[in-house]
Every structure is written in C-alpha cells, then in structure tokens.
Amino acid sequence: MGIKDCSHHEYKRKKLIRRIFFTVLAFIIIILLTVLIIWAVLRPTKPKFILQDATLYNFTLTSQTQLNSIFQVTIQARNPNDKVGIYYDGLRTSAFYQNQPITLQTSIPPTYQDTEGTDVWSPYLQGQSVPIAPYLGSEIGQDLALGSVQVVIKMDGWVRFKVGTFVSGSYRIHVNCNALIPIGNPNSGVYVSRNVVKYPLVKTCDVDV
C-alpha cells in the first residue's frame, strides 16, 4: 500500500512540474510574441546623419609618403522615430582619403537619444606624419594644386533601440560622410583664426545599420 502511495505522489509531482514548465514556457512565448508584434508595428527607422561643416587646421604633405592633417567636423545625428529611442555605444570617428585612414580615431561619448531627438558632435580628427602610398601622395598633391580635396568622414559603432522599457540588442552602425573641402578657396569658408577656416558643407551621410 505504501509503495502505491509513493508512486501516486511521484506521478502527481512530475505532472505538477510539467504543468509549471509549460506554463512558464507559454508565458515567455507570449512576451516574445508581444515584443515582436510591437517591434513590427513601430518599425524603427535608422538614424539620420548630416555633416554640417569641417574646420581645417592643417592639411599638408611633408613628403610623397607622409601627410599631416587636423580637422574638426560637426556632425548632426537625428532620431526620426516618434516612439523609439536610440542608444549610441562606442562610436568612433576618423577621416579617410580614398579608403585609407589619414587620422586617428576619435571616440564619441555614449549617448541616449530620445524620440525625435537631435544631437550634435564636434570631434577633432588628427593625423601626424601618417604614412601613405606614393601614388596617394601624388594624387593629394594634384588635389591641392586644383584647390579641393575629397575626404570621407566615417563613424562606426553600435546602436540599441528602446521601445518603452524594452531595449534591443546591439546593431552595428556605419556612417559615411563625403566632404569636398575647397582648400584652395578659403573665401568660401569662414576664418576662425589665422590659417584656420571653417567650411560649411551640409552633406547628408550614408547610414547602414
């Protein structure tokens, strides 16, 4: 009789454990489906970036294989979503000439951008005696002689999206801002100080998330 009672209690215990397991599983599935439905309805849009201006302190070839450059760029980031906030994590900015980095990376502090919010960053980008390929030195020399230099300001990092109290995982973000800087025509900009000119650009950047 005792053995039957034990078997009966063991059966009831296993049945209770299974019921609890499936209840918890169903609860988790409902939560995930709710989040996915909300996410699909809201359809968060990637942020918009604009390169507003570039202040040029130095851009000179020390030889055909070395370049000195110092910029300060102003970049506007806008969140176009009216129900989704954006976290920016580990953003780093640098300047490129024909896919070769010509400055060190400058970090942007972690930022939370509320719905339809706007942030403006003005990082300094600097490269001293940066080694470049001889053919690039020749092309930069030609650009300087013609009076304008095409550079690309790049930002790389991570973004997270916030809907209510839910925060998504991290997504990689790549931002490319093309900038044609008329170095040979300083009158097209504004003198900040002697030999330092701020050039207005207002260029929409390509954003990939």
UniProtKB/TrEMBL annotation:
- What positions does the domain Late embryogenesis abundant protein LEA-2 subgroup occupy? 74-178
**Which InterPro entries does the record associate with it?**
LEA_2 (IPR004864), NDR1-like (IPR044839)
GO cellular component term of the entry, any? plasmodesma
List all membrane-crossing ranges.
20-42
User: Its Gene Ontology biological processes?
Assistant: defense response to other organism
What subcellular compartments does it reside in?
Answer: Membrane
Keywords assigned by UniProt?
Membrane, Transmembrane, Transmembrane helix
Q: How does it sit in the membrane?
A: Single-pass membrane protein
Recorded superkingdom: Eukaryota
Tell me which PANTHER family the record gives: LATE EMBRYOGENESIS ABUNDANT (LEA) HYDROXYPROLINE-RICH GLYCOPROTEIN FAMILY, OS05G0367900 PROTEIN
Q: What is this protein called?
A: Late embryogenesis abundant protein LEA-2 subgroup domain-containing protein
